[in-house]
């Protein structure tokens, strides 16, 4: 975790540390080269196919190649993102069990490849009552953290509130955190597109200050470990999850500039999950955020 202005030997300045989600196609040994080509200061990965339940054991040599190369790369922190199918909020016992096992597996894998955090969407209610939904999520997180006794921190990602999604208000995220026993092992990933789509207005100075004040009041900035830095293709409060290129969506260039340079967010890692048809799309977004942060 961040300790003052130093993170695992990396000096952390006042500016955000920019990075992207990097493909693991062909093995973990290719990750740092890909990250370097995109000038990443921080990275996010999947440890396996994110659209299925099956997984193979990690290739020890591949994992070691990534982990051993991180110190000299200057890249950090490293984040693992949970597979898409996992849903600890699910009322189905079978789905809950699979989701719990999936979370435990990611928590085990993280240190093997040099990741310090695992990012997880809070989940979908799927017709369940709010009371029972939050109880299930807390039970799952507590169970996983108890089962996997290491220093990996689980980050709850804010959501857009699409369909039966929970975690779209800061109060809901705080409600989950309040029920976690090992509070030092849980934090928050603030997705700027999701939050905007859920009703937090980053596009104006007044809206941005109100939203950040709300985050500080409900959750506390000591819990904020990662920003998913995305513009939104859908309007404020749409509850429709659609990421878009930096400055070209409804948050807009001025809103993104205010976010990137806000003192309450200084020094945080910021992973862009903007649309990508080629590496040039990522580089174009990187040029924009660097220009906005000057």
Automatic annotation (TrEMBL):
GO biological process terms, semicolon-separated: base-excision repair
Q: Which family does it belong to?
A: Belongs to the AP endonuclease 2 family.
Binding note for cofactor: Binds 3 Zn(2+) ions.
Entry binding sites for Zn(2+) 3:
194, 241, 243
State the InterPro entries in the record: AP_endonuc_2 (IPR001719), AP_endonuc_F2_Zn_BS (IPR018246), Xyl_isomerase-like_sf (IPR036237), Xyl_isomerase-like_TIM-brl (IPR013022)
Q: Which GO terms describe its molecular function?
A: deoxyribonuclease IV (phage-T4-induced) activity; DNA binding; DNA-(apurinic or apyrimidinic site) endonuclease activity; phosphoric diester hydrolase activity; zinc ion binding
Record the organism.
candidate division TA06 bacterium
Q: Which residues bind Zn(2+) 2?
A: 157, 191, 228, 273
Alphabetized UniProt keyword annotations: DNA damage, DNA repair, Endonuclease, Hydrolase, Metal-binding, Nuclease, Zinc
Instruction: State whether keyword Signal applies.
Output: no
Role according to the record: Endonuclease IV plays a role in DNA repair. It cleaves phosphodiester bonds at apurinic or apyrimidinic (AP) sites, generating a 3'-hydroxyl group and a 5'-terminal sugar phosphate.
Protein name per its UniProtKB record: Probable endonuclease 4
Recorded name of the encoding gene:
nfo
Q: Which reaction does it catalyse?
A: Endonucleolytic cleavage to 5'-phosphooligonucleotide end-products
Q: Which cofactor does it need?
A: Zn(2+)
UniProt-listed SMART domains: AP2Ec
Top-rank EC class of the record's enzyme: hydrolase
Q: Which CDD domains match?
A: AP2Ec
